[in-house]
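**User:**
My hope is that you can spare some time for a protein that puzzles me. This is the protein in question:
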Amino acid sequence: MRSSQVVLAAVIAVGLAACGSTPPPRPVAPVVPVVSTAQMAESNLSPASASLVSGRLALVPDARGVHITGVIGGLQPLQVAGFHVHERGDCSAVDASSAGAHFNPAGQPHGRNSAGAHHAGDMDNLRADAQGRVNVDIRLPAVTLGGGAATDIAGRALIVHANADDYRSQPAGNAGARIACGVIRVVR
């Protein structure tokens, strides 16, 4: 082979290699986060399943989701209780079963809010003090308050369960009876 043929073969090889390379990535549209439209909501928890548990909670959107604060009372001293957002804002059944299952718009398995895959409505357990009261201060990430998005918790129910959530059992963490229920209502 003459040197001009070797050079031509090298140019063709480089050209063919370039044709087989991965094209540059296409620009991706920026993800626009869904934002809350309500400035505040409240939930007045009433007893369910013949319990004495009740409370009043305030819900305020923040940069990561919704911040829930307030007080729940009527629990047993030092009781650990499951706490979740449920799919329907209906507390009419005596056992609060009318609130439906855990709020789970993404179809995730049940789990712990602070680690791994979980329902959007899964929260860490409540821990009562020696008087059976809980000062609630929880941040629920990746949910919104108002606006009607799939992640919107306005109009849904907050449920306190009789037992601790084990964060493993499907579909609801084996947290037992529903002992308090309150609808999340936007404050106007």
Q: What stands out?
A: Confidence is low (pLDDT under 50) at residues 16-32. Residues 3-19 form the longest helix (17 residues). The longest strand covers residues 54-62.
